[in-house]
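hey can u check if this looks right to u? its 155 residues, i copy pasted from the old doc so theres a chance i mangled smth
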Amino acid sequence: EILASDPPVSHSTTVLPPVTTHSTPPTTTATEFTVHEGVFNGEGMIGADGQTYPVPVNYASKSKLVEGDLLKVTVLPTGELMYKQIGPVERDRKMGRLVKHEDGSFTVATEQAEYRVLTAAVTYHRGAHGHSAVVLVPRDSFSTWAAIEYIFHQP
């Protein structure tokens, strides 16, 4: 079990192809990939190696990732990154209003704070300036980012 207080780890793994019987030896090579664990910061994953890994906005939105969630990324030989959420932090729900800024970015203004939200999540939920929104934030820590759980289409 991985706890939020546990430090992220980084390691490499070699996977060998399954053993099959051939009349002549197969010409296969091992597939190399690396696995890194880290913490979601609202936009990407900060790995134990200090590197920032880009998290696709559609994955972050769909998974409702919040700051502090533990993630694992597998880097394939092709350069493809495969993410998995391995340690969600406890969350609180906040109600607020969606605010669209001049630069096209969005925030949700609640009674407690104003949180940045991913534009992809606003687009997915068909949100617009002034709509009411329910967002998820970490329960036990400060955050500047929130995950959109739901948008009400009437202001």
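The first strand starts at residue 10 and ends at 15.
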